[in-house]
Amino acid sequence: MNQQYPSMLLEKAVGEFAKLPGVGRKTAMRLVLHLLRQDTAVVEAFGNAMITLKHEVKYCKVCHNISDTETCRICSNPARDASTICVVESIRDVMAVEATQQYRGLYHVLGGVISPMDGIGPSDLQIESLVERVKGSGVKEVILALSSTMEGDTTNFYISRKLEGMDVKLSVIARGISIGDELEYTDEVTLGRSIINRTLFTGTA
């Protein structure tokens, strides 16, 4: 046991929290000690929520967003504009766009972007299912809302080639978002304006 820890149980708990992204050992220690001070019922509720989430959460069979049911609340909402699909990298991006309250269409979560350096190719992403959605429904516009990075631009271009020849408008969010920025860290006003002021995709955007 590390000499700075009075308990192996404490050390193990801190080690687990420290595995979370952005959480160092000092922050992990603070979180563990906070939980330790709570009533047993509070800690059990916290632990059970995580276990239940892992075992019972689903991914929408249509857009691949996180969901409690086979089809998510957005895809099953008849008030949403089914003729427009906003393509995003992650579930966090869906949440970011929804927070702007400026978009009423549907989504498609790719699960990442093409990144050869990280060993991520087109087959690792939900691109083919996007193509099938566009083929099999009345989709009129596909909005590419990926991060303004080299990987995001590469993915945009790949998708544009896959949708080539289909009767669908292809657009990108306006570049009010700085190059290299990720959607989830963009403020709601800027992101909302970028969606409203989207432009046609030319392959060089």
UniProtKB/TrEMBL annotation:
The keyword Cell division does not apply. Residues 83-178 form the Toprim domain. One of its GO terms (biological process) is DNA repair. NCBIfam families: recR. A zinc finger (C4-type) spans 60-75. InterPro entries: DNA_Rcmb_RecR, Rcmb_RecR, Rcmb_RecR_Znf, TOPRIM_dom, TOPRIM_RecR. SMART domains: TOPRIM. May play a role in DNA repair. It seems to be involved in an RecBC-independent recombinational process of DNA repair. It may act with RecF and RecO. Keywords: DNA damage, DNA recombination, DNA repair, Metal-binding, Zinc, Zinc-finger. Gene3D superfamilies: 3.30.60.80, 3.40.1360.10, 6.10.250.240, RecR Domain 1. This is Recombination protein RecR. It comes from the Bacteria. PANTHER family: RECOMBINATION PROTEIN RECR. GO terms for molecular function: DNA binding; zinc ion binding. Belongs to the RecR family. CDD domains: TOPRIM_recR.
